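Sync notes, pocket subgroup
Present: LS, DG
LS reminded everyone that the earlier model was apo-only. Rerun requested with zinc ion included. Inputs:
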Amino acid sequence: MNELRLLRPDDWHLHLRDGAQLAAVVGASAAQFARAIVMPNLGAPVVTLEQASAYRERIRAALPPGSAFEPLMTLYLTEATEPAAVRAARASGIVHAVKLYPAGATTNSAAGVRDWRRVSATLAAMQEVDLPLLVHGEVTTPGIDVFDREQVFIDQVLVPLREQFPALRVVFEHITTRQAAEYVRTAPGRIAATVTPQHLLYNRNAIFTGGLRPHWYCLPVLKREEHRVALVAAATSGNPRFFLGTDSAPHAARAKEHACGCAGCFTAPHALELYATAFAAAGALGKLEGFASWYGPDFYGLPRNREQVVLRRGPWQVPASLPFGAETIVPLAAGETLDWQFAGALR
Ligand code: DOR
Ligand code: ZN
């Protein structure tokens, strides 16, 4: 197979940042995806409908002329988020989910939730108005090994939370372990997971190959090979609970090549190529369309896109670096040769 056609996909987990950084990256997502669930972890988190609405306008204003990209906004859950805020968000039609960051888990998560029981009334309102909860699934308890944070989160947070709110729609974001894939596959109720390209393509050795490689550092961190294999099996299984969410998380090269480097892989410009590489390696290119273009909108209750896009086989080299406002950014797999290339909309 030298050409792959699929319905235009959406990105169900994306960081677009703000200001000059937003302007530098949003065009890349708009070129490949019709819509994206936009993460709310700006320097000043997006906690209200008004903030989400203003951020949405900034994103739309930063789009290249002629692009039809639709930002699907999220609210950042804090322990002060009122039930009324999620009801207003739901009624607005522009907010599609609420994101739970355990406080301290990742970039700009200081305002996140320390104990989910303190936000029970808000979770109850989300369940009532059917607004999905997106979870960064890692505990931050001191003493828990960084590689165990996701599986401990399942037992300590996800299971009890979902027992209390069994009808709440939940997306377990950017899963990284066999245990998370197994939980999502077998758990009762309305649960799904997003899977990133880096967690399908690499195991944790990538962070340490020949030296310390900061551009492979993201959170949750890459895991052992057995986990990567389990994620590939889940993503290529055709199970609609697993769908595409890049977690493309741009940071300037300077901020990653640093004594305390930022977490995040920048994959927006070549996201589909990276996913196609992972699916091709598994002999499962035929499952890419469901994962990339069907199951996400189905879960969120949105229509599937209508237009088709094309990927062509043929080697090309990922750029070593790209402009990022006044800075530069290093995309994931910089300098590597990929075998699939995005060729735009079918004409
Ligand atoms: O690697 C990550 N980067 N993981 C996250 O959860 C946040 C993200 C970011 O915003 O940089
Ligand atoms: Zn993220």
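DG: Residues 9-305 form a domain with the TIM Barrel fold (CATH 3.20.20.140).
LS: The mean pLDDT is 97.
Action: DG to write up.
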